[in-house]
Design brief:
4 copies of one chain form a homotetramer.
Chain A: H1 3-6, H2 11-31, H3 50-69, H4 80-84, H5 108-126, H6 132-162, E1 187-190, E2 193-197, E3 213-217, E4 220-223, H7 229-237, H8 249-258, E5 266-267, E6 274-277, E7 280-283, H9 295-304, H10 312-318, E8 355-361, E9 387-390, E10 407-409, E11 418-419, E12 423-425
Parallel strand pairs in A: 8-11
Antiparallel strand pairs in A: 1-4, 2-3, 4-12, 5-6, 6-7, 8-9, 9-10
Helix pairs in contact in A: 2-5, 2-6, 3-5, 3-6, 8-9
Chain lengths: 426, 426, 426, 426
């Protein structure tokens, strides 16, 4: 990078370039504990192989940024467009999702070569001044890759949980903040009224977080902390999984078919409860937030507890003054986290522990406009049959967490780090 | 009914009694064109046999009204509680829904005897003064039976459509109002703002319509008429069923699996299009509103047309000053309906033609309270995975239509008389 | 029938005419206890509605006999060819088997009108001399209808067993001969050697029973009676359904998926065992032959008992000198049957109690030739994936039982009257 | 191995020891072209990962030979008994077959360590004199591993065929002998009569090949060569896949569901036909024997050709005087094979090209006795729902081919090297 040109580049371009390098190297870091086989297997159609995440995020930059905007760019391998397109119909045919685990070739090493090829081209490109439009696409690509970093970890956990050897991804500290267990949940009151929600600030946000708009909200209360594993055990002991009156009809049907009787990954091989984690099989920590529950379970729990799930408007409103901080330190220097203060006047554990199911189906905000171009398919086409989660989890990259962020999953999904915060009417 | 007591009864009780008699006799009337076999078969798990509708609505009165409130009442047949419970978990076990079509016994004649037994007991009960709580249950039972009257007709249409002989349920006039086909859809503009929605008037409404509450709505426009069959043909000719970019992802998957390429019941045995109706197989009327489309198709159509579906708040707000009138005349004296005036300043065809898919998932209104008692399961437990439809169809009983009414079905349901009205941002 | 012509007709034609009348009227007799709804429902894809059996057997005469051989014959209703073709690909398209239960029209009454129309034409035809070829087809049609008479009864039993009211088809005596329960099964020894099997006598036999041919058989022993319900209870108490080493791999898989733990139709609502029969729910008779077991269960039982199932060659050889007699008296005058003598030197209960599973897959005999014409599809195309049963059951028409008869069903079929006779090596 | 003891050991033990070493090293050789990921993936429930084959065959020796017969043997890793048991119910629970592809751990390297551990123990054991019973088990283990060597290759081919990159397992010569294509198939005549079949010689055979016994066979003719790809193309052009009258009913249903319209692995990306092989995607060789067809297709082809498939008795009788020779040279030195002479008086291509479907269901021979011990489950429990194949394929180890060998697969299996030889009645 000749210094002569460097000062001409916008501050935004320079910041994005740093972000790009950081994001791209974090993905490589995340793949280090994995063998070629680990990175190839797919444990269920909803999950993807680690190798696929590494390649697909690369394909995104190749297809959205390099091919249309760098005339001299040579595609790494033509077939990869078919193999690593996730769901972009406007781009062309794609390899069927449930068969991703059969792609033993290209190898993990080949995928790293693919990554290097694309990184080189991106770096070359960024040495020149580039337009805001293209910078937008690079920024989208970085955020896209951060999403896949989290998915890579949730998918590896799911894969390893299927293996009777219960391998650990990486030995490290506990990922979530514990609470001092109290006899009851404290709630904080909010006045509601005509409030604003959605993104309109500086920096990046997905199309689905826009436009900022007004919603009318009744007075409500939000729990100051997350529901713990210990409280979930109480729910189980009280027949939570046996009494249909706590459950939505679809939830009860899903529970019956799948045979749910505890959160995903809980085991009871002997008199004690254990849970499968990225650290391998661990004793269940009763004061840690419950994770790996579906929307249906979260909703049933809330009804059992005489409360309800918050709407996303309520959640976003309540999070108004809280500092945002994530949990997945760069390069995975995971650290034990300080316990939240139980006497805090504000809600605790809002960011970076577990995704919090809301009562809100994922639909378009009023006057929603999809991103232009192929990325139009990014969020809009998933606006049916999903519920919004807020807050970010212990495996969400720190810089990827924000107050207006709308994550979404189907109501029976359990393999994410998804938990519960209660709300109720004032 | 001894006149000495008659004047003591409340006006409400007398009105409800009249409603009860009318509703109960309408159901019998609706079953007249059906043989025992017609009334027994079940064409898919979502549909129920006509006999089952007749018995289940009777079971509802027996279980909710007579058993708890008439100490001398003798249950008609003990096993019926198991056979004709639809989904009330708090009441006990029930016969599996997909096996309803195997109940060749009791016969249609036995079911009518059951109806008579319960009607006699209800009439005896209503000769005495009864409490408001019980009157509420009777009112709920009448509205419940009206819902099943519509389902009986939609389910018979589905059954007869599976029969290669394409039998007619009943020869009658066309059930929907046609429009004079215009070259484009006219829209009416609304200011929006902080508007009210939900029920708080006199008379009956379901728990899901309450409480009345405020929502903030951006300025919007609503189409003055429904989309016609002819317009749907245009959508088909323009590749509407072949282009995934018009579709939600779940919708596209549903379309692929089920092989949708036209609304349900459309056929093209020769050069002309036909459609299966309660009148048997009929030529497709291009100026009639399209019916039997899923939410996914409605949504794809709207995107293709450069518009969107209205939210239920928008729909309810726009319907503010329109007179409510239904279509299913008492005792099924179906009449041809006057065409709507195309120059009308207000939206036309809002009530009683086809149910109109909205963009709104069926969720609880703020501070929603389920009905007390067993009827608590009536609506609340279906609040996931469904979308709201508004307006009432040509087979909805007239008295059962109201502005705040929230019908709901899964987004892939097509066997209801469900159609499309467009909206767009102002 | 004018006597002037009668003496001209062959004795065979007169006999067949009598058989035809008897068979056709027996079918009508069998339908008498059924309502239109009973006759319409289909309880599983393997079963057919009674109405369908009545119509399909009629369609067989219309399509195979009348249409090709009576130029003046007018088809009753054109659509019936599509509706009532079972599996004859050479004749044309057909209504999908799993949807037979949705044909509420034509009604049972219409089907009887169809039967009368075809009977009239057949009787007119038989007043003239007709060729041996056509007589062969009529004979095939009679035997075909006798097969469907048995199926009509097994299918109605299956339908009624799904109904929580457990209705009875017809109150009558027990259909099977009981045995005096002994402490052990006696076996009769046979020398084997190069023996003959298959049909070559006078009268009717299906193509699959021909040609008569030689097979070499090792010395063997055949049990003198059928396995009883009481013996089956012993098998169950000894873990028969829990121990995979008794079972074929496919059988164990089928058992696991379907949850078999007793013969079909056995129930234990209280401390006693009951079984669903054509007489409704009855106490289990321990000395009656076990019925409604699959090949897999029969085979597992035999292995548990230290024996094996007989091959069909062994069965046919052992049945050499036994008189054939059936059980389903004409017009269903079902009578209690005499108990077999336990001291008999010959095998008992060989005919007319339950079909006996053999160890032999249903394959073609050497030099097998399918029937010519459309009836070529009658048996040959089913020669994979099925096992042979021998002997005839209590609901097989008497005249339809013969020593060489090869019935066949898939190894997981349980709704036929199928039971077990043991064999072992000498 | 101290020479002092060597001469004490039986000749059989020494021969077996050599066989063991050869077999064990061939498996390792076969795994060399595979990455850890290649060896881990499972492309369908019927197939297994290469790593699993390598481990399971090792587990067989550990469980059947070392654990019961070498008191000092220390199991390599306790969990492997659960992971690598295939279907031995008497040994204990096992990992579900469809999830074998999720075992990314143990790695391929770990599996090789497991192999070395067991090989060391086996070699130590064989330095001492061991009993005939244990030698029998070692011999069974060697034959078992040879079966899995073939499966490893067929399963890898299936896996690589799912990969859009169509990778090659190994570049080598064509594996099958071609024929000089003739205008018609020549047949050789056989008298039949009371012939003997089954194994009773020296050396190894599976329990299912015993006992030798007599069967009566009518005079028949057997084709002198296999059906070629070119002849299969003729079948396709003549509507072979469109005309149900050629097909067994179950076969036609399987074809419809799976959409078969050519042998497995055939592709036609352009105007030419190609087929996926262990060499990667190759042009279809018209004179090579057709492979990868199901029993149903083979049977339909035979009916189309006016012939039939041979019974296994016919095949074994016809093979009487032919020299047995396999094709998979030790250590995979695959060589081009000489073309068979078309003027040969004896059938050609009987061994080592493709497995030949017979008309015979896989059932027990008269007086069949399963192997004693856990190996009793080896063959006997699969004796339903499968058809016998004879002759061995181009990927069957040479020493593993013999005249009496009974391979068996379900009639819809297509991923083996399975082809067609015709027979007909004399």
């Amino acid at each position: 990078m000749p210094p002569a040109y460097s000062f001409l580049k916008s501050q935004r371009q320079n910041e994005l370039w740093r972000l790009l390098k950081s994001v791209r190297s974090t993905s490589v870091e995340l793949s280090k504990p994995l063998s070629d086989a680990d990175a190839t297997a797919q444990s269920m159609p909803d999950a993807s192989p680690a190798k696929w995440h590494l390649a697909h995020t690369t394909w995104f930059f190749e297809t959205m940024v390099l091919e249309p905007h760098v005339p001299t760019y040579r595609v790494f391998k033509q077939e990869f467009s078919y193999l690593f397109n996730s769901y972009y119909d406007s781009i062309g045919d794609r390899h069927p999702r449930p068969m991703r685990g059969l792609l033993t070739r290209p190898s993990l090493q080949d995928v790293h070569a693919y990554r290097n090829h694309v990184d080189t081209a991106l770096n070359l490109m960024l040495e020149e001044n580039i337009s805001a439009d293209v910078l937008d696409l690079i920024e989208l690509g970085c955020n896209h890759e951060q999403q896949h970093q989290e998915l890579l970890l949730t998918d590896i956990l799911h894969l390893f949980a299927q293996n009777p050897l219960r391998p650990a991804y990486r030995r490290t500290h506990s990922l979530v903040r514990h609470v001092e267990r109290a006899t009851h949940t404290e709630f904080q009151s909010f006045e509601g009224g005509l409030v604003e929600m959605g993104f309109d600030g500086e920096g990046f946000a997905f199309d689905s977080e826009r436009p900022r708009h007004r919603v009318h909200t009744e007075p409500f209360q939000l729990a100051k902390r997350l529901i713990t594993n210990g409280e979930w055990v109480d729910f189980m002991h009280d027949g939570g999984y046996e009494n249909p009156t706590f459950w939505l009809a679809n939830g009860w049907a899903a529970k019956q078919v799948a045979g749910w009787n505890a959160p995903l990954y809980w085991e009871q091989p002997d008199s004690e409860r254990w849970t499968m984690t990225l650290n391998g099989l661990q004793r269940l920590e009763l004061d840690a937030p419950v994770a790996h529950v579906s929307f249906y379970e979260a909703d049933a729990y809330a009804r059992w507890a005489g409360a309800r799930l918050p709407t996303e408007a309520e959640w976003e409103h309540a999070a108004h003054d809280l500092p945002v901080h994530g949990n997945l330190a760069e390069k995975l220097r995971w650290r034990p986290r300080a316990a939240p203060e139980s006497s805090s006047p504000a809600p605790q554990q809002m960011y970076g522990d577990v995704w919090e199911w809301t009562a809100s189906p994922f639909v378009a905000y009023p006057r929603f406009q999809p991103t232009k171009g192929a990325a139009a398919e990014y969020n809009g086409k998933f606006m049916s049959g999903q519920f919004v989660l807020r807050g970010g989890s212990c495996v969400t990259p720190s810089q990827h967490i924000r107050r207006t962020y709308r994550n979404f999953f189907a109501p029976d999904a359990r393999w994410q780090f998804s938990g519960v915060r209660l709300a109720r009417n004032s």
